[in-house]
Specification:
The chain is α/β, with parallel strands linked by helices. The protein folds into two domains: 50-224 and 313-330, 3-Layer(aba) Sandwich (Rossmann fold); 233-309. The chain contains eleven helices and 13 strands. The protein has helices at residues 13-40, 63-76, 105-108, 110-115, 127-136, 183-188, 243-252, 271-284, 292-295, 300-303, 318-330, and strands at residues 50-54, 81-85, 96-97, 121-123, 141-145, 157-163, 192-197, 218-225, 233-238, 256-262, 287-290, 307-308, 311-315. The strands form two sheets. Strands 3-4-2-5-1-6-7-8-13 form a nine-stranded mixed beta sheet, with helices on both faces. Strands 10-9-11-12 form a four-stranded parallel beta sheet, sandwiched between helices. The protein is globular and about 55 Å long. Transfers the gamma-phosphate of ATP to the 4'-position of a tetraacyldisaccharide 1-phosphate intermediate (termed DS-1-P) to form tetraacyldisaccharide 1,4'-bis-phosphate (lipid IVA). Keywords: ATP-binding, Kinase, Lipid A biosynthesis, Lipid biosynthesis, Lipid metabolism, Nucleotide-binding, Transferase.
């Protein structure tokens, strides 16, 4: 879905406030149902440690790049990590191990295909079944992409990822806002918070994010390009949680953007979408460029005509992140 304007606390303040107020009772009911589910569920405990990378809002915060970075760190530390994902947007319910040579985004979702580039990946709507398959396949530790609000699988360590610019939005719960649950409740179950900033120089406003008094580690991170920005005129498009973040990153790296086209998160590109993009690129005499996540969702023939611009999560204090991972592997709760 495309986030409605009233989810943005900086836009449409008067009309947005009225809409949020009208929808707030539904948000309270949504939060109560989630809290009851968590309270009454006895989580399945896997035979290996499980690290969850989740968030408190709907939409993109950078969970998947963070998960991929943690998987790479764990490999560097001598572990055999597996990624675990629900496989949102894919037709397969799992549990199944992702095979990039066999599976498409229509099968397993776009994010698991990206995670499978970093480490073996399992998709499963049933998280305990997915964790068990990972263990059977040889995992020594599991990194679960999303699932902070899913109580079915025991988490040995939980990172909550938040966008340092948009934060918690207006602070209202879905459908009145982007929150999946109250901030206080979500942070209470977290072991650490990762604040994603637009670049390495930006510092988060911890007070605005309600993190200034949090007695848990707070890490600063950002998405850094892992390849040179493509040369020449570019027509960028993206169907992610915050497309503007991708466009801004391209510009900051020196990309010459003729135009930028936004699609909803996890958008499935139709034939008319592709024709429109191709026609626009031709009219601008530009090359098409998109995110890695969008690139894997494109049909194979069209994908070959589109550039991707990969990014990776970078941390201001990677050593402390590694300390957290080492503690989880050792069975020590930090």
């Amino acid at each position: 879905m495309r986030p409605p304007a009233f989810w943005n606390d900086k836009a449409g303040r008067s009309s947005g406030a009225v809409t949020r107020a009208l929808l707030s009772p539904l948000g309270w009911a949504y939060a109560a149902a989630g809290a009851a589910r968590i309270a009454r569920t006895t989580p399945f405990k896997a035979d290996v440690p499980v690290i969850c990378v989740g968030n408190l809002t709907l939409g993109g915060t950078g969970k998947t790049p963070v998960s991929a970075a943690l998987l790479s760190m764990l490999q560097d530390m001598g572990a055999n990590p597996f990624a675990l994902s629900r496989g949102w947007g894919g037709r397969l319910k799992g549990p199944v191990r992702v095979d990039a040579g066999q599976h498409s985004a229509d099968d397993v979702g776009d994010e698991p295909l990206l995670l499978a580039r970093a480490a073996p990946a399992i998709i499963s709507a049933d998280r305990p079944a997915g964790a068990q398959l990972a263990v059977n396949e040889g995992a020594s530790i599991i990194v679960m992409d999303d699932g902070h609000q899913n109580p079915a699988l025991h988490k040995d360590f939980s990172f909550v990822v938040v966008d340092g610019e948009t934060g918690w939005g207006p602070g209202t719960i879905f459908p009145a806002g982007p929150l999946r649950e109250p901030v206080s409740a979500g942070l209470a179950r977290a072991d650490a918070v990762i604040v994603m900033m637009p670049d390495s120089e930006s510092l988060p406003d911890l007070a605005r994010l309600q993190l200034d008094q949090l007695e848990k580690p707070v890490f600063r991170a950002w998405l850094a390009p892992s390849a040179s920005v493509p040369e020449g005129r570019l027509l960028a498009f993206a169907g992610i949680g915050r497309p503007q973040k991708f466009f801004d990153g391209l510009k900051a790296a020196g990309g010459d953007l003729a135009d930028a086209i936004q699609f909803p998160d996890h958008h499935r590109f139709s034939a008319s979408d592709l024709k429109r993009l191709a026609d626009l690129a031709e009219s601008w005499n530009a090359r098409l460029v998109t995110t890695e996540k969008d690139h894997v969702r494109l049909p194979a023939g069209f994908r070959d005509t589109v550039l991707d611009y990969p990014v990776q999560a970078a941390f201001a204090d990677e050593a402390r992140i590694r300390d957290c991972l080492d503690a989880v592997r050792s069975g020590v709760k930090t």
